[in-house]
Amino acid sequence: MVRTYLLLAWTWLRASAQYPGPLIMMTLGSFAVNALDVAAIWVIFEHTGSLGGFVLAEVMFLYGTAGLSFALADMLFGNVDRLSQHIRSGSFDTMLIRPASAFTQMAVDRFGVHRFGRLAQAAVVLAVALPQLGLSWGRAWMIPLMVACGLVIFTSVFALGGAAQFLLTDAPEVANAFTYGGGTLTQYPLSVYGSELVKGVTFVVPLAFVNWQPALFVLDRDDPLGLPHWLRFASPLAAVLLAAVAALAWRAGIRRYRSTGS
User: Fold this and answer.
1) Could you say which of 36, 58, 91, 95 would form a disulfide bridge with 86 (CB–CB 3.0 to 4.6 Å)?
2) Model-level pTM?
3) H helices within 78-141, ranges in order?
């Protein structure tokens, strides 16, 4: 499946490279648009010294790690949430009869280098924030793990959103509320949200394990909501469990699918 993905991605990249001008402009545009989020955080800190009890460098760290995980998931698998378009047009039927995973084909559809704009922006923010935190190696080891787990969690949310479109063919925005909405929610300290929402994204849709819980360990901070300390190390477990649920949901959607109009 990995080899198939890489071959299809390379095919789309070669096609995109035929028009380098628009491709470069789209990449730069994506970088600039996402940079506006950082500008908004800067504006907030012009009027306050902390956000939810976290200083600017810590918020940028949360933003960078969440942004990096989400950008990777969106770049590699984000097209899955456009399943309804393929169902309505009938092109998903074509994917099902090809000798390759339908999920892989959906994920890599129209893969383009312009998606690197969001990824580069998140990486720059994280690279700027890290030196200001003065982290020890005894805690910094968690950072690549949290980014990897965040990638799996966001990919699983994309897959769940895609699977839901087998039932809600004309409502892709429902899936977007959890995918892109979840990406935005995790860019800020969860301490700025209500306790009920935080419990929901911890024990129902585990977005808190993208960066919030492991970041509390990295930053050596107490949980503002008093949740158990062991949750800081539960990101791999949350990622595996959500991935298993997403895989089952996707397979159930494939079994239910009865061609265009079903």
Assistant:
1) 91
2) 0.89
3) 83-89, 91-97, 102-108, 116-133, 137-140
